[in-house]
Amino acid sequence: MIANTQPDPSARPRLSxxxxxxxxxxxxxxxxxxxxxxxxxLALAAGLNPAQAQAMSSIVFAGSAQFIAAQxxxxxxxxxxxxLTTLVVNLRHVLYSTALGPDLRxxxxxxxxxxxxxxxxxxxxxxAVHYANHQLPRACKHWFFLGxxxxxxxxWQISTAVGIFLGxxxxxxxxxxxxxxxxxxxxxxxxxxxxxxxxxxxxxGIMAVLAYSLPYKLGLMAAALTGxxxxxxxxxxxxxxxxxxxxxxxxxxxxxxx
Length: 258
Hints:
Elements lengths: L10 H35 L4 H10 L3 H12 L4 H11 L2 H13 L4 H10 L2 H13 L4 H29 L11 H11 L6 H16 L7 H20 L1 H11 L9
Helix pairs in contact: 1-3, 1-7, 1-8, 1-9, 2-8, 3-4, 5-7, 6-8, 7-8, 10-11
């Protein structure tokens, strides 16, 4: 019997989505490299050995949480406080998961676990925009997420390793930590196309500055909650939202005059 050697017709769109995720993530991943270098230097300064510093990047894989954890470890913070602080900082991933859930809930558990591990601010940003702008078959959607997430993961692991072994040679005058802010600005700005989203970003930024001195980085959560509340309120009070609610309440209203 001759084996069937015809190519799988579904392989092409999967590979196309995978490569699309890689290409979309690459510009952001380049901006993450200095962030990884700085983390590597900071982790060693906090008292972690190279293996521990690299393991944190591989297991935790959350840049902001790793920075905060390294600072708290260096300050001798007790474990319960360290765990609570990093948990609060990473609560935003619950919002990301909720937003992407409808597109991915059909996947088997092994896929959902993998994508949950690869979920970051940067991977979510490009994936959410791609899902909103393209009508994709359900069977292909997760491949874009995989490409974006793995690109960021690989970049983070390599840049962390370079920071651990070579980062001490980087002059402090370069101020590479400012590239983190530039990276997130590049993620947020393209999505500010409507009044509610722009107001949410502005109010969150103001709150982040005002609440900067709060302990355990709680200012980050205060800023996130402020942005969410402002965005939801403006979204619900916008004319388009009121028109939509009216049409849902009276579904035959538009056709009554025809």
